[in-house]
Fold:
Amino acid sequence: MSENTPEGDHAAYVFRLYLAGGAPNSVRALANLYALCQKHFPACHRIEVIDVLKDPSCALDHSVFVTPTLVKVSPAPEQHIIGNLSEEDEVLRALGLPDHSIS
Amino acid sequence: MTQKRSARPLLKISSGIEGFDDITHGGLPVGRTTLLMGGPGCGKTVLALQMLVSGAMHHNTPGIFIAFEENARRVSANAETFGWNMPELEKKQLLFIDASIRSDAVKSGDLDLTGLLAVLEWKTKEMGAKLIVFDAVDVMLSLLTNPMEEYRELYRIHEWLLKHDLTGIITTKVEDNEQATQRYGFMPFMADCAVILSQRVTDRMAVRAMRVFKYRGSPHVLNEVPFVIGPTGVEVGSSNGIHPEPQPFKEKISSGIERLDVMLAGGFYRGTNALIAGSSGGGKTTLAGAFIEAACLRKERCVFISLDENSRDIVRDLATVNIDLTPHLTTGLLRMESVRSESASSEEHFMRIKRIIHEHEPRCVAIDPLSALSRVGGGLAARAVAERLIYLCRNAGITVLFTSLLEGVDPHLETTPLHISTISDTWIQISYALLDGERNRALSIVKSRGSKHCNQLRELIFSDTGITLAPSYTADGKVLLGTLRLEKENALRTEADSTPTNGVRSKRKSRKPAAKSRKPRRTK
Structure:
């Protein structure tokens, strides 16, 4: 399952979020990711959501077992961020965004 | 007190490890969780893996191995070194899942294992898996921020296993026993069976041990038992397994020395064990050689295990007392193995000897000297090994003769380094009598269970025609050995023949005719 934002066609940031249905951490991660994208790159991102409860084979193929897991597919290199993304600073640092761009 | 009857009796599945099944009275609890805890390098992964592989190979129980720490491919590759056919098993029966987190992954906020369980649920149904191993669960728990979360995720695994009626094995690293009880105190509570593995260094020798400290609803061995990781995997040395008591033999077999057989009212009972204790140079190995030769002459398969002495040297030395083992080695009736005691722990020696016995299927075994085991791996471990060797032979109906070196200055201190004399059926003591400028070997039977035996001290004589025992003479309350005995013998003969004697002769010269006159007859 993938959800494309309208701006997704020429997205600079492509994310894949593995979550487990309506599990609390998964719901929170999705909300946190939407908020973060809107705030930092509103016009150039695409989010694919994979529900491992519905599509476990995809999780196995990509060796993703803790939920939620966010994978930054592009720009390269691929980066895995595990957890519900509540620590925004950690996420931005992992995405390679300089600290000053946060504010 | 009324006993609450559980709706379902506790079912167990064999772990595939004989000793483990012994100490748990049957193996792992089916549909429950078993916890294996221990420090790094204790053998948790191998143990869990062996249980999984055994289930797949022998009980048609497909299983899944989830590796949180080690690379799953490497785990599977390591398994092949134990001779398990992993590629074949992984076609249908086994699945390895690499659940280790990428080293470059970043953590932000809380997480859970719902995803993993979703994958497992799918795969379990597809394969019909019954046994699930979660290896190094502590690594996964370290991703969590507080003990409450750790508890929650473990509980999630536990509940999931229960819900799907799966048998689970969870391994976790703990640094020491205190941590095992405090930090992860909830883990043993959750599990139905909990085992602590350890590795200690005693007298420079690493010794592995395990202890089942909890088994809900089942009796189990509480004590720590040693184990080794050998070429075929984990071998657990259980001390009180449930084995059928062998039917005792009424048959007596020769000790290899005719006069000793007479003292023992016919020899040793078959299937029992005999201990020959004595100080260095007393002739223990020679007696062991005589026993083995007699058995070979009866066409019985034999094993001669010598610790710290070369087999060839023993064969050569025995030939000087007219014991020839060479033809039996050639025909393959006899297998001789020499083992360096310090090359391995006593536990490893035990496993090796067990394997030799298993391969050769002997009726008679000699272990010379068993006391060498006490030099390695700590006294307590060595003693347990000695005991288990004895029980191993007894259960297999093998007659075993083992020698034990008595060290120390007091020849009257009748105790062996391993304290095995208490469980030996026959106990023969060889000592030296230092009297009137001579050192003579003396033999006595301390005990012989269920059999009449001679209570007298006899002189043990080795000559190029063989081994024999001379009756001792008592005069003025003293036991006469060596020259004094010969003098007494001659005096008696003189009395009978009324001819004069030629007085005192040198010991060696005098002994030969005496020995010849009582030419030892080799037993058939």
Observations:
- Residues 1-8 of chain A have pLDDT under 50 and may be disordered.
- The first strand of chain A starts at residue 13 and ends at 19.
- Chain A has one domain: 6-95.
- The helical segments of chain A are 24-40, 56-61, 88-94.
